[in-house]
């Protein structure tokens, strides 16, 4: 079973690109999709029920969409929001189990209030969607 999590706020411009990509994914057997504003500890129980997870999120840097492996790493900041690595670490700590995990990042430049994507983010949508489908098929080149 695979889990795809789109992270972001659709009311903050390019920040909504993760949810938009995930919501555009057609229903598939063996794939569960979630859209969240931020990663929180409550997601741990869903993580430990799947074999693989792909987090999809906007990035403020980078020249192209990319997928990279996520290794569990302790949460280093204050607050409720977490990174994918911190969420994986929490799953490992609490449940002694983690799925294989990746992060698909899509560069954006406009994170101000608004529901439209910048031309930069819009230009990256086809490649990001292609990478998501390749990941689902198990044939994506992962950047390490």
Summarize the helices and strands and which ones pair or pack.
Layout: E1 2-7, H1 17-23, E2 31-36, H2 44-47, E3 52-59, E4 66-69, H3 84-95, E5 100-107, H4 119-137
Structure report:
The chain is globular. It has a 5-stranded mixed sheet, covered by helices on one side. It contains 4 helices and 5 strands. The chain has a single domain (2-137), classed as 3-Layer(aba) Sandwich (Rossmann fold). The protein is 29% helix and 22% strand. By secondary structure, the protein is an alpha/beta fold.
What keyword list fits this structure?
144 residues; alpha/beta; Rossmann fold; five-stranded mixed sheet
Biggest sheet: strands, sense, closure?
5 strands, mixed
What would you call the shape? globular
Please give the number of β-strands.
5
Task: State the strand order across the main sheet.
Answer: 2-1-3-5-4
Structural class estimated from helices and strands: alpha/beta
Number of domains: 1
Low-pLDDT parts are: none
Q: Share of helix among residues? A: 25-40%
Cα end-to-end separation: 23 Å
User: Average pLDDT across residues?
Assistant: 90
Strand-residue proportion? 15-25%
What is the count of DSSP helices, taking H or I runs of 4+ residues? Answer: 4
CATH class: Alpha Beta
One letter per element, helices H and strands E, the order comes to: EHEHEEHEH
Radius of gyration over all CA atoms, rounded: 14 Å
The CATH topology is given as Rossmann fold
- Assigned CATH architecture: 3-Layer(aba) Sandwich
Q: Report the CATH superfamily.
A: HybD-like
